[in-house]
Amino acid sequence: xxxxxxxxxxxxxHAKARGIDTRLGGDEAYWSRHSTLKYVRRLRFAARTRRLLxxxxxxxxxxxxxxxxxxxxxxxINLVSLGSSGSLAPHIAVxxxxxxxxxxxxxxxxENSLWVPMWSAVARYPExxxxxxxxxxxxxxxxxxxxSIREAKDRLERAVRETAEFAxxxxxxxxxxxxxxxxxxxxxxQPVAPYHPDILPPGGYSLAARRLLAxxxxxxxxxxxxxxxxITVADPEARARYEPLTRELYAAVMDGLIAAVNxxxxxxxxx
Length: 271
Hints:
Elements (H helix, E strand, L loop, with lengths): L2 H16 L9 H5 L7 E12 L2 E8 L2 H7 L5 E9 L5 H4 L6 E9 L2 E11 L9 E9 L9 H21 L3 H13 L21 H12 L17 H28 L3 H4 L1
Parallel strand pairs: 1-6
Antiparallel strand pairs: 1-2, 3-4, 4-5, 5-6
């Protein structure tokens, strides 16, 4: 799972859950050990403001709890995908830092804003915390609605099973088993995402959302060397099948992740 995407999803989910129970947003100690901040040296949240004739970023927080404190009470908070940042298809672009653009949409009383992350490397190996991340707030138009949990589940299950069938047919049994495990998460009694299991907070989210999140993370096979993007399919007919399957899988994974985060607050938690 792309760590940048995981972090944006986690911040969104925790901010949403905080609206029903402030403890679910996490305190400083919780975020200091959060998986999506493991390699982050500096984190900053800034709002774009206009002073005279110039725009500038005004820092407002340096921790997730500090940022959440600035959000309007009662705001609607959602994870959104803004597509590729360049000309590459999203399932390929996501392998590169900043290749796709995901953001946190905040809406309140007709005012819509986006918190858009920018990652930059500020250190090198053998350092582990090498990233500086800034989320910048800018006004935006209304954001698109996500699929329901049921719609996203159906799409993801179909895409994962079709891709698993293709993988086994091509002798790619390891990949086939990966997709089968992802499909199995959709029915698991105790679903746990194989990577970044703390994207969703410990409470506030339904079992259906946790299943969908675990399946989406498990089926996120897009990256560079050694990823599903990197496999070789020599047969022209099989290659023609591989391309649309992969595009559909990526779209279904993203729909699943976004629906789990945006639509997954447990009904009982809403009161």
